[in-house]
Amino acid sequence: MRRYVKKSLSYLLLLCMLVSMLFVFDAANPVRVTAATSSLTITSSSQYLVDAFNWAKPKALSYVQTGIGSNIPSYWAGYLSRPAFYSRDVCHMTAGAQLLGLNNENFSMLETFAKSSTSGRKYYPLWAFKFDGGIYTVDYKADDNFVREIPAVFEIVEKAYKMYLWSGDSRWINDPDMINYYDHALNDFISLHDENANGVAEEHHTSIWQGVATYNENGEGLVEAGDAIGSQYQAFLAYSGILAARGDSAGASIWATKAADLKNHFNTNWFSTSANRYIRGFSSSWTPKTDFGKENSWFMPMKQITNPGSRTDSYLTYIDSSVSALAPFNIEAYTYLPEAFYLWGRNDLGWKWLKYIADSRSTYPEISYTVIGHTAEGMMGIQPNAPQHKVATLPRLTPEVGWVQLDHIPVGGHDILVKHEGNTKTTLKHNTGTENLTWEAQFDGSYSTLYLDGTAMPASQKTVNGRTLSYITVALAAGQQKTVSVSSGGGSDGTYRIINRNSGKDLGVPGASTTNGTQLEQRTYNGGNNQKWQITSNGDGTYRLINLNSNKAAVVQSALTTDGAAIIQWPYSGTLNEKWQIVDIGSGYCKIMNANSGKALVVQNAVTTEGAKIIQWTYGGSATNDEWQIVAVP
């Protein structure tokens, strides 16, 4: 909920509501009972991340309103001056809430919205409710005069299915009110809001009180908007999943096809070749809009309706630069950005915007909940499937976070621990559960082999958002712990070649020298031990690179932090300039970042000649001389 309504409550009411947050009461027996708690914990090599998470967790729990007076299970989801929960906010807070054990609150609130969708309201749900389940009249005057925005209609469907996957709670797919809502939202609602009959929900108003197509409340009057069509696409996919879970395979297939058709329609008709950019919406005269539109821009890749490839890659860069260039705006709008970038493997930008919202320490409830959600789903890539007793993980760490561990993650009836060491090693512990848990350990890149507790296992591959993921599946009984790491680089100790992407030449020690201080070079591979490296985990998310010939480590000379410092060989002693983070960047390549300087291992001047020197430099640029392929030596 992000609206500019010029109406506020009295300071007295606000004070009373804030004080009420300090205690929780039973409606039937008004005595103090225990406040909301969660056993979810974090540890990490990044104290920044630990501090941010440990700020967010108690802050989020403090907003729980369940049991106060006659309140329904709920939490505060909107401005603290408005004692209510808003559909847009709730949808975006559900993941963080679920991680904190608030499945009942999620269901209660989304069901309340679902019940409010009626034919008289043209199947829009109401925008906001009080904590006791009554209509919050700041945003409602009559059934034809209330705040409504198209994306929320579809996000309720999407998030309901997502919560089913997290919780395994069958109410999400069987509750009559929820089933009724899904059917009306994806059939009747679209029929009533699709004047041009192209299958895309639309609106023809500029006032949120009459209904608008976008979450961006600037009064622009878009008829069709990027955040609406993106949310509609995800709702189609979610409904397909819901029907499949209910045993309706034919219906599931129909809605999966509808989703594919909508995505094809979007990628055919929502790209401007003249602007070389996605169209974020259409005006009342059906003029395509290609400038930046906040939500109706970043929702398109976030909802994954854009096709993988250069168009999406460029658009993500455009989103980052556009937001960065704007004067600061309402903090809650930024909370979508980490998800948009993490989903497409733009981990550096996901982390950048996760830090931005965490740094705010804002009391707006959406901030604390999304810090928790983005840490688990974004950075740690945790993908639950509680109904089938499955979970997948995909590490998306950056050099600032060498390793991170979340413990007591609730996935249905399972309690799990997940630890990522860099992007090449993951440990999962099945703390408790009544059934075995199937774990799909995923890593970015193409690897023929992954190591399960040190034993080589054949890996499978799949493509997600244009990126190749390698994975194996592991069954864990309650109490078991397993570790999976990549076979080429960092995650498993062994001997490897390190090949520059730009030149195709190998990292090595010139002349097979064993002299301390010899600067490393690139050269065509000849099988010599001076071009082979033992890559060994330090147990903190970093690795040491030891030359097989000299038994000396690759280090930054004199522990310099400046661009251009030489990479030399030197006896390993454990100092930071001798440690490296190996970060997958997709397609079988990685960047190798020094733990002391944060700079990348690169071939000087991006030359491809024999004997070119190896230095450190700030990562990034048009060349690929700072990208490497790590290949196991038989």
Give an overview of the whole structure.
The protein has 14 helices and 35 strands. The chain is globular and about 85 Å long. Helices cover 30% and strands 24% of the residues. It has a seven-stranded antiparallel sheet. By secondary structure, it is an alpha+beta fold.
Read across the widest sheet, the strand sequence of neighbours is 3-15-16-17-23-19-20
How far from one another are the termini?
Answer: 57 Å
Average pLDDT metric: 92
Which sheet architecture does the biggest sheet show? 7 strands, antiparallel
Helix count equals 14
Radius of gyration: 26 Å
DSSP E strands, number: 35
Backbone shape: globular
Assess the beta-strand content as a share of residues: 15-25%
What would you call the structural class? Answer: alpha+beta
In the predicted model, the low-confidence regions spanning at least 5 consecutive residues are 1-33, 488-492
The helical percent reads 25-40%
Supply database-style keywords.
single chain, 634 residues, alpha+beta, seven-stranded antiparallel β-sheet, five-stranded mixed β-sheet, 14 helices, 30% helix, disordered N terminus
